Model the fold of this input.
Amino acid sequence: MSTNNSISPIQADLVRIISKYVLLEESRRHLKGRCPFHKDLATSMLVYAEKNLFQCFGCGKGGGPVEFVMAIENKSREEAIQLITTQR
Ligand SMILES: [Zn+2]
Done:
């Protein structure tokens, strides 16, 4: 566990991050949108705000804020974390 008081990038608001790239629709227990990682004609990507996780049922991609930024910006884990922490 980190002892400093800054918010860990893992705790970054995934919904807010994904919303920059994808239009999310509210669904009953989650948000959903067109997956940016494959040619999505439906809304295959679900975002679970409570868990801060996303999962695409079309291409299988999933994870948290770091994994999303890594994939969409084509960054390393370190670069993605830096991007998330400097954007807040
Ligand atoms: Zn997908």
